[in-house]
Amino acid sequence: MNTCKKSIKKNENILFKDKHGNIEPFNSDEILKAAGLSAERVMYKLSKAEKDMLIDHVLSMIALRDSNVIESSEMHIIVENALRKVQPIVADSYCRFRDNKKEWQEMLTECIAEANSIQFGSGTEAEKNDNANADRTLVSTKRCSIFNVFNKKLFIMFFLTEEEKQACRDGYIYVHDMSARRDTMNCCLFDLAAVLDGGFYSSSNGGLFYNEPKSLDVFFDVTGDVILSAASQQYGGFTIAEFDKISEKYAERTYQKSLKRYISRGIELSVAEEMAYEDVTNEYYAGWQGLEYKLNSVASSRGDYPFVTVTFGIGTGKWARLCSKICCDVRKNGQGRHGAKKPVLFAKLVFLYDENLHGPGKELEDIFDAAVDCSSKAMYPDYLSLSGDGDYGSVPFMYKNYGVVVSPMGCRAFLSPFFERGGFYPADEMDKPVVVGRFNVGAVSLHLPMIYMKAKLEGKDFWSVLDFYLNMIRNIHCRTYAYLATLKASCNPLAFMEGGFYKGHLRAGDSIAPCLESATASFGITALNELQFLHTGKGIDADNSFSVQVIDHISAKLSEFKLEDHHLYAIYGTPAESLCGKQVKQFRDKYGIIKGVSDRPYISNSFHCHVSCDITPIEAQDKEYELFHKFLGGHIQYVRYPIDYNLAAMKRLIRRAMKMGFYEGVNMSMATCEECGHKQLEMKICPRCGSKNISQIDRMNGYLQWTKTASIETKNARMDLSGNIDEIMKTVDKEAVGATRTSDFKAAEIADRVSK
Fold first, then answer.
1. Among 582, 619, 624, 629, which has the highest number of CB atoms less than 10 A from its own CB?
2. Which residues are bridge partners to 210 per DSSP?
3. Nearest-CA neighbor of 385 among 347, 359, 419?
4. Mapping DSSP to helix (H, G, I), strand (E, B) and coil, where does residue 259 land?
5. CB atoms within 10 A of CB 150
6. Other CB atoms within 10 Å distance of the CB of residue 105
7. pLDDT one-digit tens code per residue, 576-625
């Protein structure tokens, strides 16, 4: 047989006839090429030994034939059978690709239908506005949306296994952002200071060189350019951490330049200093206003307004303090035409709270007061506790033990600890954690009630079924890491070549693999409340014992995976948005309507109490406390604050949240009349001018969104706390705000209102 195979290799009379009838000499390289592409689609690389074995098997089967002409259909069968002997997973991929003509036709038909819906404005309002920060009426957004439809289909066809596809279709898992997941990374903490330091090139081929800003106004202009450029090359949240501290350097440059100019004109030093300080103040005002205009009106190249977050508040220098105060002042006063200004949505503001800096009588208490005043008018900033409760890996732990701030990457995602020398764990007491310049590679969420019901009805152990899906998500993440490692630094030059990411000083053709070492991957959790109800007949507001047990089990599994795979994994409280409604439908399709689980039009986000719970803000904080501190990869706690513009009560509640170590969102409905600019917490008709042209700002999980309120019925009962301040303080001190529904406000609730 060996002699026969050798003779066939040299025999030029072996011919291949393709599907078009063309005849050409047999070429083993074509077989290796097809096998290699099939392997790539399942993130596998054939070794040289496997390639040699493949050709040997193919030639052995050819040697058994009588004819010297091989039809393409027969060759496909030979190659598939040979691959099965070498590597079955590649054979499956080869078979799917060979037999997927019908699948391609169906996919393209679906793409065309969705593209027409996007292009010509058909479809439901929910479909047209499925992304709160993308305007689908714009040509640029339509183009990106159509591309995303096609890219999502490609991801499903070629990246997921058949088993994973079925799990997604049934609803046991949900792969987030499938339209972008193959191309780039998810949310990040971008190192703006590193990019600006010494200047940078705007593109991988050289492009325009930006000199480092010599003044504060240029700093704001360049920062806007950097954000729009870098955020376009990823998806998810884009955070600039400790913005107040970064700006100090450039504020001082403006101050010194102005001071020198005024002194040169013969102006007295004390007067010159006041004038220079005023110049810095004016540039901060203009800078913040300009940045707000840019981030809320100039879409990125991916067709939406970037999900930008800015954290601030702990800078003690005079310029950092000024930056923080003016940031709040600009946001609360809003943008727009004179007399009808309203707060913008981006950047999302997060106030960094340290009890030793912002507590009563502390040096930065005035900055905290300015932030609370801003929140009462604009619902931002949110508040991140640096000095409250928290175990290893939490934001307070890292701040108190290492002096570093772990800011949220967008609405709620957080990084797992990573150290300069030790990696996942500190090498020694002197090892330093890496915070800025890191990112997430994507999230895949578990639908826990579905998994629970599957185990129950099939007579299987719940923990075994849960582990099965945890391993499925693990495999998706591993392939994602491997796939992203093939990308070149030129795909995002500001991040990978100009220092925006940790180890991001690569050459254009270098693999981004070094930057992936510190990246996290998220295991998302939805409907924990419904899972608890399935197991005990109670929601997590009444009993969270089983939920805690499940999350502890998942956490232990992720620790095992992390050590085995050398990837950072984290538990993520999924901000489900429209997924809330989709998952209820999936559950009903599979398991019907179950009271307390699928009898409402939406499920609960992550670990939150259900929105129907009749609990106070204090109770919500207490009931979500334990689970919040287990979701270190992504969490936020927020309730509806029924306290109108009572700043003293709001301050007390926020400070309570900060002591508990929360990342706390201020949530209240805020309405603005588009005609006269009148504002109040809630209105359908303007009491000043009678207009029904009302815009309302509501919290969409971690972010905010403007909605028209004329057609929306407000369901939330609210307690009026606009009365005597002493009575309010007594109420808060007693840790009870009154019996009213004040749990977190969900996107699905808005969608439910609109649909009715």
1. 624
2. 200
3. 359
4. helix
5. 17
6. 10
7. 778 888 999 999 999 999 999 999 988 888 899 988 888 888 898 999 99
